């Protein structure tokens, strides 16, 4: 039985649109809300009480099939009955009203919660976890871990010098580090000051915010279909790796770590080959640079594996997560990455046990129901259908990609305007989709998306494309 | 009339109970050992059994019952297992908020506005809007971003487009797209530990060491002479000296200063207080130089000092531009009132979750409870009583308790002890005698009980402190 039938026997059979989306009720509510909270990025007002499974309900009562899922952060559908149970336990209530300062006063069940939850799906070789609050936060804490690690190695057991102690209070070197974090062109790692300095997706994400002068290396621009561009793509991998080697060899400051997404999501769903990722791993090792894999968006099962980088057979030094796990943080192995002494990697909450509990419940469901197998099967079916669509609408659907990467499927459209019009048109027909990069359309359904949902998605996409090509 | 604690925590213990020779005891130690295999436990005081903790008492894995005057680094305001919050935790709204966590910036839920208004209702005087974060550091960094967006768009013309130079340079992390702007913070300040906030933090080298930092200015925070009575003149001079330093930075710093950020009471940095003249002086200087004033109420806010927002006691006029919060609020973010602190375009101040309805719901419930049950007048009374008892203790042990401070600010009090070593010994002995306490600054001991701490808890605290100090 498809998992959605098991979880959601009452799931709507199809989208149901009563008004345009956003409709009058959404618009009225947005107008009100905007007097307290910035609503410029709002798609519509959602009615989560009436959302179910793969369908999101809006304030006007429209029901949309959701293949965006709160920017890829809802893993098991809306109002999943198993998660509702987890949210109603005594443990959850205790966690909610007694939120601890986790590093100082961890709860007696935190070890079990981590062990049975997050750590049970940690990628091979990474057996410790540091918990955080958002994707950006997780990445920045990972940067801190790497920067302190490298500085501690350099100090070789010596205490901080007086000069370090004095200069750091003035935000000057040597106490303040001049080491850097390397990232890749078009990457996205968050929007706080450190993470934003490694983000290179779009100017709008970065403008007007002071940044650290950190280096980038090129991420490959892959040509599609892959079968027709084998040589070119291979050459592109080599060019990018060569350039990376060059930056790692010549950048004037020590590079503490490199951070990379397994698929660059916000930056346009840019995929690269296993060869490229293996090359990045080898080069970082060769240069004594730590490798952070950012699984904030890719992780959590959407790719058909728990972590997308597992498709490439590489082992990073740190791996960050958030979104679908509902709990943010990073996995690591080397204890020195926790800092050579206490209170260096620290903050008030250091995570949130209520989130660790939900993560545990999500992980339990993924394992219990073999959801990744379902994702792979459904995704293969979905990709096949989209290939047919690409054939048929080859002027509108470009660079279809993500084969064999579960639901991590995307395609480009000829321009930003056409893409935006397409997304809007699909929404009016009851399909909620997201964009990425300048001209990309990305699919981010939950792990409960089945073949029957594919048929509906494909139907809407096709009908919208057909209308667009007739105009 | 019964106190809040008596009414809502009828099963609160009548005093601490220590059953092991050390804290953590054998069970706690074993639990720390296994947890340390997967999670850094070097900061762990003890493992807590939250299901057994109640009201002002925290219970550890060995069954030790401690009076808690630290409260999760000043973040549990309403006591452990507060029955009125448990109701909220079990409500349908909360359950949905947990299971269907939205990307708030894109898909706010139908009940979100009401939740948010339940928080804004208690916003500091003069503040109208809110933007949510997920920790204290996050809240402060988001506030900084709002200030920088505003600074540059004021320069550019609020709705004017970016220049091609900006759009190109920004992809290389260079000006003019990434401008060299600064924010001024104070010596001994603490604003968090992410990259920009660590650049603002000046409490201890360990909080900052080995992180790349922005080259931002500091000025000195006043260091008052205690007792305040009798030192008015000296302290007034100190205010003037510090304000002159701030003004000097505005005149002479190499890059424009877009904002000043300040805590109403510098907490991590040692519980350093300042007065209305100092805060008004900051307001005047920021206005004069076109900079924003950010008040960091992460630790002081939500009633901890006997009023909802500590900076309100200074009647800063016009009110600060942004006020950040976290900790006791159980939700994080910043309040503001100028609509131009919202960037002109979408997706500038943005991230996946943009907060968490779970936290916002809890925050609204906490503030409602504080106000409906009139917790703050009771806390102010407890605070004065507590202060007078500590004053007596200071007279008894003038060599040990110094610079007692925080009078009239609820139980937000601190005192210094002769040395860091003595302090460590004092805190450890307090713990084994049944009181959980925290430190701050070099030699400070800070009191951070919850808002439900009453006179009877003071009467338990004081004799234990007396006994411990006498033994030192
Ligand atoms: C790969 C990646 N890293 C980091 C982030 C930042 O996460 P957050 O929005 O929770 O700060 C995102 C968000 O989209 C992301 O896609
Ligand atoms: C005044 C102040 N600001 C900011 C912070 C940082 O908050 P968080 O630890 O949640 O990042 C703290 C934490 O102690 C604080 O006291």
Automatic annotation (TrEMBL), chain A:
Keywords on this record? Aminotransferase, Pyridoxal phosphate, Transferase
Highest taxon above the source species:
Eukaryota
Matching InterPro entries = 4NH2But_aminotransferase_euk (IPR004631), Aminotrans_3 (IPR005814), PyrdxlP-dep_Trfase (IPR015424), PyrdxlP-dep_Trfase_major (IPR015421), PyrdxlP-dep_Trfase_small (IPR015422)
One GO CC annotation: mitochondrion
GO biological process terms, semicolon-separated: gamma-aminobutyric acid catabolic process
Q: Which reaction does it catalyse?
A: 4-aminobutanoate + 2-oxoglutarate = succinate semialdehyde + L-glutamate
Q: Which Pfam families match?
A: Aminotran_3
GO MF term (any one): 4-aminobutyrate:2-oxoglutarate transaminase activity
The protein's Enzyme Commission number: 2.6.1.19
Question: Which cofactors are reported in the record for this sequence?
Answer: pyridoxal 5'-phosphate
Query: Looking at the keywords, is Iron present?
Result: no
Q: Which residues cross the membrane?
A: none
Keyword Transferase assigned to the entry: answer is yes
- Family the UniProt entry places it in: Belongs to the class-III pyridoxal-phosphate-dependent aminotransferase family.
Q: What is this protein called?
A: 4-aminobutyrate aminotransferase
Species: Brettanomyces naardenensis
TrEMBL record, chain B:
**EC number(s) in its UniProt entry?**
2.6.1.19
Q: What is this protein called?
A: 4-aminobutyrate aminotransferase
Task: List the cofactors.
Answer: pyridoxal 5'-phosphate
- Give Gene Ontology CC terms: mitochondrion
Cross-referenced PANTHER family: 4-AMINOBUTYRATE AMINOTRANSFERASE, MITOCHONDRIAL (PTHR43206:SF1), AMINOTRANSFERASE (PTHR43206)
The record's listing under NCBIfam families reads:
GABAtrns_euk
What's an example of a GO molecular-function annotation for this chain? 4-aminobutyrate:2-oxoglutarate transaminase activity
Would you identify the family this protein belongs to, as annotated?
A: Belongs to the class-III pyridoxal-phosphate-dependent aminotransferase family.
Establish whether keyword Transmembrane is in the entry: no
Q: Which organism is it from?
A: Brettanomyces naardenensis (Yeast)
Keywords of the record: Aminotransferase, Pyridoxal phosphate, Transferase
Substrates-to-products reaction catalysed: 4-aminobutanoate + 2-oxoglutarate = succinate semialdehyde + L-glutamate
Q: What's a GO biological-process term for it? A: gamma-aminobutyric acid catabolic process
EC top class named in words:
transferase
């Amino acid at each position: 039985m498809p998992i959605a039938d098991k979880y959601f026997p009452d799931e709507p059979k199809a989208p149901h649109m009563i008004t345009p989306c956003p409709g009058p009720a959404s618009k009225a509510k947005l107008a009100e809300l905007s007097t307290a909270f910035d609503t410029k990025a709002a798609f519509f007002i959602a009615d989560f009480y009436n959302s179910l499974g793969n369908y999101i309900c809006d304030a006007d009562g429209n029901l949309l099939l959701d293949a965006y899922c709160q920017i890829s952060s809802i893993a098991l559908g809306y109002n999943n009955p198993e998660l509702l149970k987890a949210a109603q336990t005594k443990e959850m209530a205790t966690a909610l009203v007694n939120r601890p300062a986790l590093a100082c006063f961890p709860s007696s069940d935190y070890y079990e919660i981590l062990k049975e939850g997050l750590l049970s799906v940690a990628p091979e070789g990474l057996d410790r976890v540091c918990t955080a609050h958002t994707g950006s936060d997780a990445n920045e804490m990972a940067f801190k871990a790497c920067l302190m690690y490298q500085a501690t190695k350099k100090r070789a057991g010596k205490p901080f010098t007086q000069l370090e102690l004095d200069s750091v209070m003035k935000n000057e070197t040597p106490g303040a580090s001049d080491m850097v974090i390397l990232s890749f062109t078009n990457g996205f790692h968050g929007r706080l000051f450190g993470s934003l300095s490694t983000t290179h997706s779009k100017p709008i994400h970065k403008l007007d915010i002071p940044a650290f002068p950190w280096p980038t290396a090129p991420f490959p621009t892959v040509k599609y279909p892959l079968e027709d561009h084998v040589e070119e793509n291979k050459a592109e991998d080599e060019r990018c790796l060569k350039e990376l080697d060059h930056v790692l060899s010549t950048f004037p400051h020590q590079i503490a770590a490199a951070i990379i997404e397994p698929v660059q999501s916000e930056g346009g769903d840019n995929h690269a080959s296993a060869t490229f990722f293996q090359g990045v791993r080898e080069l970082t090792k060769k240069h004594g640079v730590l490798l952070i894999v950012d699984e904030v968006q890719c992780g959590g099962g959407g790719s058909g594996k728990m972590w997308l980088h597992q498709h490439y057979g590489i082992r990073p030094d740190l791996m960050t997560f958030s979104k679908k796990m509902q709990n943010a943080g990073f996995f690591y192995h080397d204890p020195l990455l926790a800092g050579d002494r206490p209170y260096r990697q620290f903050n008030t909450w250091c995570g949130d046990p209520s989130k660790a509990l939900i993560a545990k419940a999500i992980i339990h469901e993924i394992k219990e129901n073999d959801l990744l197998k379902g994702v792979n099967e459904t995704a293969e079916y979905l990709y096949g259908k989209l290939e047919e669509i690409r054939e048929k609408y080859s002027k509108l659907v470009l660079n279809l990609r993500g084969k064999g990467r579960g639901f991590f499927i995307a395609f480009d459209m000829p321009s930003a305007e056409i893409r935006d019009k397409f997304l809007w048109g699909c929404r009016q027909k009851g399909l909620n989709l997201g964009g990425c990069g300048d001209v990309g359309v990305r699919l981010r359904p939950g792990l409960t998306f089945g073949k029957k949902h594919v048929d509906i998605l494909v139907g809407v996409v096709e009908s919208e494309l057909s209308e667009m090509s007739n105009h | 009339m019964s106190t809040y604690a008596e009414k809502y925590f009828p099963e609160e213990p009548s005093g601490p109970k220590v059953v092991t020779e050390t804290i953590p005891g054998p069970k706690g130690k074993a639990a720390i050992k296994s947890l340390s295999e997967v999670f850094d436990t070097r900061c762990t005081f003890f493992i807590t059994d939250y299901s057994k903790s109640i009201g002002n008492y925290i219970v550890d894995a060995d069954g030790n019952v401690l009076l808690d005057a630290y409260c999760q680094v000043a973040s549990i305001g309403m006591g452990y297992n507060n029955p009125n919050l448990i109701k909220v935790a079990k409500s349908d709204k909360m359950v949905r908020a947990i299971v269907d966590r939205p990307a708030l910036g894109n898909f706010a839920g139908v009940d979100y506005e009401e939740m948010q208004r339940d928080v804004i209702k208690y916003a500091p005087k003069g503040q109208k809007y809110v933007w949510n974060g997920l920790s204290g550091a996050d809240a402060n960094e988001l506030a900084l971003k709002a200030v920088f967006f505003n600074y540059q768009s004021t320069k550019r013309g609020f709705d004017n487009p970016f220049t091609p130079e900006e759009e190109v340079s920004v992809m290389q992390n260079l000006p003019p797209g990434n401008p060299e702007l600064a924010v001024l913070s104070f010596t001994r300040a603490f604003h968090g530990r992410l990259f920009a906030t660590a650049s603002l933090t000046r409490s201890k080298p360990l909080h900052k060491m080995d992180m790349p930092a922005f080259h931002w200015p500091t000025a000195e925070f006043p260091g008052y002479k205690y007792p305040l009575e009798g030192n008015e003149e000296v302290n007034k001079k100190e205010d003037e000296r510090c304000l002159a330093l701030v003004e000097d930075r505005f005149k002479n710093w190499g890059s424009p200063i877009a904002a000043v950020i300040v805590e109403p009471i510098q907490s991590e940095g040692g519980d350093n207080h300042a007065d209305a003249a100092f805060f008004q002086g900051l307001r005047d200087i920021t206005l004069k130089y076109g900079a924003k004033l950010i008040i960091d109420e992460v630790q002081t806010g939500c009633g901890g000092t006997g009023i909802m927002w500590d900076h309100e006691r200074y009647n800063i006029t016009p009110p600060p531009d942004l006020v950040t919060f976290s900790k006791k609020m159980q939700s994080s973010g910043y309040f503001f009132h100028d609509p131009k602190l919202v960037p002109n375009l979408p997706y500038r101040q943005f991230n996946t979750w943009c907060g968490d309805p779970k936290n916002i719901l809890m925050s609204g419930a906490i503030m409602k409870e504080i106000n409906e049950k009139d917790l703050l007048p009771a806390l102010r009374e407890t605070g004065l009583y507590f202060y007078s008892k500590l004053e007596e203790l200071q007279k008894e042990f003038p060599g040990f308790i110094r610079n007692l401070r925080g009078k009239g600010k609820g139980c937000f009090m601190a005192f210094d002890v002769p040395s860091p070593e003595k302090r460590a010994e004092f805190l450890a002995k307090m713990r084994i005698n049944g009181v959980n306490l925290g430190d701050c600054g070099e030699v400070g001991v800070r009191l951070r009980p919850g808002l439900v701490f009453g006179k009877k808890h003071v009467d338990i605290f004081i004799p234990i402190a007396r006994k411990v100090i006498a033994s030192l």
